[in-house]
Amino acid sequence: MTEVMKLDEQYVAGTYGRYPIEITDGRGSECRDAQGRSYIDMGTGIAVNSFGYCDDEWKAAVTAQLDKVSHTSNLYYTQPGPELARMLCEKTGLKKVFFGNSGAEANECAIKVARKYAAEHKGEEYSVIVTLTNSFHGRTLTTLAATGQEHYHELFCPLTPGFVHTPANDIEALKQTLACNKVAGLMMECVQGEGGVIPLDKEFAAAAAKLCADNDIVLIIDEVQTGNGRTGSLYAYMQYGICPDVVTTAKGLAGGLPLGVCMMGDKVKDVLGRGDHGSTFGMNPICCAGALSILKRIDDSLLEEVKEKSRYIFDELGGAQGVTEVTGMGLMIGVKTVKPAADVVKECMDRGVLCLTAKDKVRLLPALNIPWEQLKLAVEIIKGACI
Ligand SMILES: *Cc1c(COP(=O)(O)O)cnc(C)c1O
Predict the structure, then answer these.
(1) How far apart are CA 346 and CA 16, in angstroms?
(2) Which of 271, 295, 319 is the last residue of a domain?
(3) Is ligand 1 within 6 A of the CB of residue 222?
(4) CA 35–ligand 1 middle distance (angstroms)
(5) Which of 258, 254, 288 is CA-nearest to residue 69?
(6) What is the tens place of the pLDDT at every residue in 142-187?
């Protein structure tokens, strides 16, 4: 045990089961631990380090902003936030952005938007937010209520009321749910990440979007994990041919800094008015400067590379010995293995590759720009660990 591990054990709340590795530094897709061992990182801090560790361009953008202003609160204007909001809107066609610090906060904002829109347009009794079974939307008491996995709820009840779950990919069940409740919004992930890297059926997504449009229900797509180039398009919904009213994202947006956004389309862009919502750290200039530098680089050629690397991983691991299924989109991939996923992850770690798990799968979320050489080596090692 390193000194840091001992301190962590004694003084840090025991909410995480950590691997026995103290990461001291990293460059790109490689990091090192306190023993000087190096690893290829196929998890990027759970889809956060979009361009890996200490990326030069990102670092330059962040440090330049550090030299100007790091925080002033939302009582004053600062440059990076509005510029980032414009870039997000121009790239998505959505109209306005609220800035928070995390995925859960982005979703909280989306839920408030849906509830206020419905209260004003349909009546205050239209407050129900429908989400999917096996979803994950965050850890606050409200986003936990939104999360369609019972085991996260245990011992924290009562959660925020007004959430109803319906099974993914079951259009009839969704119709029933919408008919039996006074619904403000429908929130879903295009690829359920924590739920096991499971993409939503295209037909279901399209039917759900149409039901929302027909019934004036706010369609919220949670792109906290799938967003910012991760799935091979800037946002995953773009591959589903649907037009959400609200899109939330966080994780990879600022390339390693805490930033969450709730983006609002035409229908709801003016729902939030002065005093309706806020966040002290929201629109933090450092985080926004980091995000600007990340978002600028997620262009067609990078996305093409993401898709090419995705195909490579699917080809190599699909049908590999000890692998029963490969799911996901882009560089958000779940690998179902014969061996327990945790054992595969442990073996990979011993051989110098960091992977994640999602439910019973090994989950891969490498940097969007992971060099081919490191990717090939990592896949080789993962393959070996699956046998
Ligand atoms: C990680 C995640 C969240 C929660 O994000 P935090 O930044 O941890 O609050 C919400 N939704 C999805 C889909 C996620 O993957």
Answers:
(1) 16
(2) 295
(3) yes
(4) 31
(5) 288
(6) 999 999 999 999 999 999 999 999 999 999 999 999 999 999 999 9
